[in-house]
Automatic annotation (TrEMBL), chain A:
<dbReference type="InterPro" id="IPR050490">
    <property type="entry name" value="Bact_solute-bd_prot1"/>
</dbReference>
<protein>
    <submittedName>
        <fullName>ABC transporter substrate-binding protein</fullName>
    </submittedName>
</protein>
<dbReference type="GO" id="GO:0042597">
    <property type="term" value="C:periplasmic space"/>
</dbReference>
<comment type="similarity">
    <text>Belongs to the bacterial solute-binding protein 1 family.</text>
</comment>
<dbReference type="InterPro" id="IPR006059">
    <property type="entry name" value="SBP"/>
</dbReference>
<dbReference type="Pfam" id="PF13416">
    <property type="entry name" value="SBP_bac_8"/>
</dbReference>
<feature type="signal peptide">
    <location>
        <begin position="1"/>
        <end position="25"/>
    </location>
</feature>
<keyword id="KW-0732">Signal</keyword>
From TrEMBL, chain B:
<feature type="domain" description="ABC transmembrane type-1">
    <location>
        <begin position="69"/>
        <end position="279"/>
    </location>
</feature>
<comment type="similarity">
    <text>Belongs to the binding-protein-dependent transport system permease family.</text>
</comment>
<dbReference type="InterPro" id="IPR000515">
    <property type="entry name" value="MetI-like"/>
</dbReference>
<keyword id="KW-0472">Membrane</keyword>
<feature type="transmembrane region" description="Helical">
    <location>
        <begin position="200"/>
        <end position="222"/>
    </location>
</feature>
<feature type="transmembrane region" description="Helical">
    <location>
        <begin position="73"/>
        <end position="94"/>
    </location>
</feature>
<dbReference type="GO" id="GO:0005886">
    <property type="term" value="C:plasma membrane"/>
</dbReference>
<feature type="transmembrane region" description="Helical">
    <location>
        <begin position="9"/>
        <end position="30"/>
    </location>
</feature>
<feature type="transmembrane region" description="Helical">
    <location>
        <begin position="106"/>
        <end position="126"/>
    </location>
</feature>
């Protein structure tokens, strides 16, 4: 009798504990950066709120953490201090650095085999190049982009070119650029043919030249680079020649910030920049414009760019499960479509493009499809261990060649030597 | 005996609040920085290990370091005298009785009130090739557009101009305050003696302003290492490190590359340079400064 009573009591106690446990909400912190401004922050907050409403057992706080580099610093500082967010969107190129710091874990451990095949397998492969290494998936593509060519159809018409056709290859870009470069009576340029911004981090758009030339800059283990490949030299010589020889691009290094404005104001007839600017250009260009894939040389090609979700190590298993669930939700077709339409970032899975929302959007605004179609030719953004230093060595070489301080070959040989020194401990 | 000991306790008690703050936030980090410069950078997967002078060897072979050091030298050589001369000239002018003096003083002081980041954004617009203010003005005279921040020849000087513009107004305030304390009788006496304006300035005004000049020049030297905010906004040190300065490079190494040990090494060098400069200034200048 007494034993029975005890059993009942303990069963009740266990039940209470269990229900109490059920009602314990999981707290999640999630850092996100905003690189191009506009609707991105609002959309993330709106999506997070929607998720919280549907999942009352998860308290998710989305924290705006500044630019990409600010967010990276904040997340790493927090992780070193033992208080990291459970989840963060950071540059896909930071993967090796985060592994090296031992602050992230692969998603694989928190997924079933089926999920691994269906979910991970459903992302565009070119986005996964920057998200996987050594057979593990460390990043889930979210805020991803790729550079494309925007052109001013009115300027093309005025120059006697077909306003519906963008340059398909390097030679055409030079030819059209020459037709589009206008000078006033005193010989000063009033409209440049093309603008490829190079200040700060020239390597990204440069990959839009080195990839078509047939070069891959780094291996997938992140410990070897290929900076002085003759094809890379060829690509850099072409970039330099655009200003020096053909006179179709403003000489010197070119700022990113004013690039869309230069396009809107007719300072340049074509510009290369991220698809993340698509919505901005659509809203602000006072003329009819077109969007095209980057011109081809040996092949078509471009880098991918932008941010991935990372799962931080220092958190409980419940938190990690909840975090993975949230990432699965926000990359699901409906949510990915909302995000992509609001920002211009590329929805990272083919399914999202099949939603009604997305179909209606692309029917109304076909340029949105260009970036997605370019993914077929896209490769990983330059990323290695000691990424900051290695990329800086490469950036310095590009800048030196653009400024005319060194020949392309000299500059790239020097960058290769520096990078090899830096990467030695990782080989 | 007893009183002497009590006095000691008093002294320590009075000193301790300031000392605790100084030690925690100044001395301890400085010592830690020196210690860190002898270790490797800790990564999550590898602990820091003692590597002796390896970081200093890297430093000697690091061509970017030598470049930013040279840049910093030129940055100092231009900003210090330019901002001092300009501020003195402005102070002399707005010290005279002239119409709209209040407005002029305010106009000169405005750059100081603005945060350097805001200043940088304004100048970013001035320098932008093509449709920037400077190029629009050059365009009126038929001059070609010039990529001020994008060319290695002009990038550093563009940064220097911003720093001088920002600093001169601040130093002007000190000169103005010093000028107000100089009795007008000196001027009258000089006039009676038939001294020219230039002679009066050279032999009377300038020597009397010497303590202010010392103070301002020490500030200018410190600022030439400290004022780097605009570089973040305007050039990020580029192109090819042409406009990078020592403090900016330290930040880059520490927070972009996360090589904290090497950043500590660079910091040690910077502190050493600053200490040498401060000592030099006090010894060199102090002899020529007449305090009243």
């Amino acid at each position: 009798m007494f034993a029975n009573l005890l059993k009942t009591a303990s069963a009740a106690a266990i039940a209470t504990v269990a229900t109490a446990h059920m009602s314990f909400a999981v707290d999640l912190e999630f850092y996100f950066p905003v690189a191009v401004g506009g609707a991105a922050a609002d959309t993330i907050e709106q999506l997070t709120a929607e998720y919280s409403e549907a999942n009352p057992d998860v308290n998710i706080t989305a924290i705006y953490a500044g630019s990409y580099s600010d967010a990276g610093q904040k997340a790493l500082t927090a992780a070193r201090g033992g208080n990291p967010p459970q989840l963060s969107v950071l540059l896909s190129t930071q993967m090796f650095a985060l592994i090296d710091e031992d602050v992230i874990v692969p998603f694989d451990d928190y997924l079933s085999d089926e999920e691994k095949a269906d979910w991970i397998g459903g992302f565009y492969p070119s986005f996964m190049e920057n998200s996987q290494t050594g057979g593990n998936t460390y990043g889930i593509p979210f805020q991803r982009s790729t550079p494309v060519l925007y052109w001013n159809k009115e300027a093309f018409k005025a120059a006697g070119l077909d306003p519906e056709t963008a340059p398909a290859n390097w030679d055409e870009m030079v030819e059209m650029g020459k037709a589009l470069t206008l000078k006033d009576d005193s010989g000063n340029v009033t409209q440049w043919g093309v603008r490829i911004p190079s200040a700060g981090f020239p390597y990204w758009l440069f990959q839009g030249l080195s990839t078509p030339a047939g070069a891959i800059l780094a291996n997938s283990d992140g410990n070897k680079v290929n900076f002085n490949d003759p094809k890379v030299v060829e690509a850099l010589e072409y970039l330099v020649a655009l200003s020096k020889e053909h006179g179709v691009m403003q000489p010197g290094s070119i700022e990113w910030g004013p690039t869309p404005k230069a396009f809107f104001e007719g300072e340049t007839a074509m510009m290369w920049t991220t698809t993340g600017n698509l919505t901005n250009v659509r809203n602000n260009a006072p003329f009819d414009f077109g969007v095209a894939m980057l011109p081809a040389k040996e092949r078509r090609g471009a880098p991918t760019g932008g941010g991935n979700f990372y799962l931080f190590k220092d958190s409980t298993d419940e938190q990690k499960d909840a975090a993975v669930d949230f990432v699965q939700w926000i990359t699901a077709p409906e949510q990915a479509a909302t995000w992509s339409i609001a920002t211009g970032y590329i929805a990272p899975r083919a399914e999202a493009w099949e939603t009604e929302k997305m179909k209606a959007y692309t029917a109304d605004f076909p340029p949105a499809l260009v970036a997605r179609d370019q993914l077929e030719f896209a490769v990983a953004e330059l990323s290695t261990f000691e990424n900051g230093k290695v990329t800086q060595a490469f950036n310095d070489a590009l800048a030196a060649a653009i400024a005319g301080e060194m020949s392309a070959k000299e500059a790239l040989d020097e960058a290769q030597a520096k990078a090899e020194r830096i990467l030695k401990p990782y080989q | 005996m007893e009183t002497a000991r009590r006095q000691w306790i008093y002294a320590w008690l009075m000193l301790s609040p300031a000392m605790v703050l100084l030690i925690t936030f100044t001395h301890y980090p400085a010592v830690q920085t020196i210690v860190n410069s002898f270790y490797s950078t800790p990564r999550g997967r590898r602990k820091a290990v003692w590597i002796g002078l390896d970081n200093y060897q890297t430093l000697l072979l690091d061509d970017v370091f030598w470049k930013v050091l040279a840049n910093n030298f030129w940055y100092a050589v231009w900003t210090i005298p330019l901002s001092i001369i300009l501020s003195l000239a402005m102070a002399l002018w707005v010290n005279d009785k002239l119409r709209g003096r209040g407005f002029l003083r305010m106009a000169y002081f405005t750059p100081t009130v603005l945060p350097l980041i805001a200043v940088a954004n304004i100048w970013l617009f001035f320098y932008t090739p093509g449709f920037g203010l400077i190029d629009q003005i050059r365009g009126l005279f038929g001059l070609p557009e010039q990529n001020w921040m994008g060319s290695p020849d002009t990038a550093l000087y563009s940064m220097i101009a911003v720093a001088v513009w920002k600093e001169a107004g601040f130093f002007m305030i000190f000169y103005l305050a010093a000028l107000q304390t100089i009795p007008p009788s000196l001027r009258e006496a000089a006039d009676i003696e038939g001294a020219s304006r230039w002679y009066y300035f050279r032999r009377v005004l300038f020597p009397l302003l010497m303590p202010t000049t010392l103070f301002v020049s020490i500030n200018a030297v410190i600022n030439s290492f400290r004022l780097v905010d605009h570089i973040f906004v305007m050039t990020e040190g580029g192109p090819n490190n042409a406009s990078s300065l020592l403090l900016f490079y330290i930040y880059e190494v520490a927070f972009d590359y996360w090589d904290t040990a090497y950043a500590a090494t660079l910091t040690v060098v910077m502190i050493a340079v600053l200490i040498l400069l401060a000592i030099g200034q006090f010894f060199l200048f102090d002899r020529r400064v007449h305090y009243k």
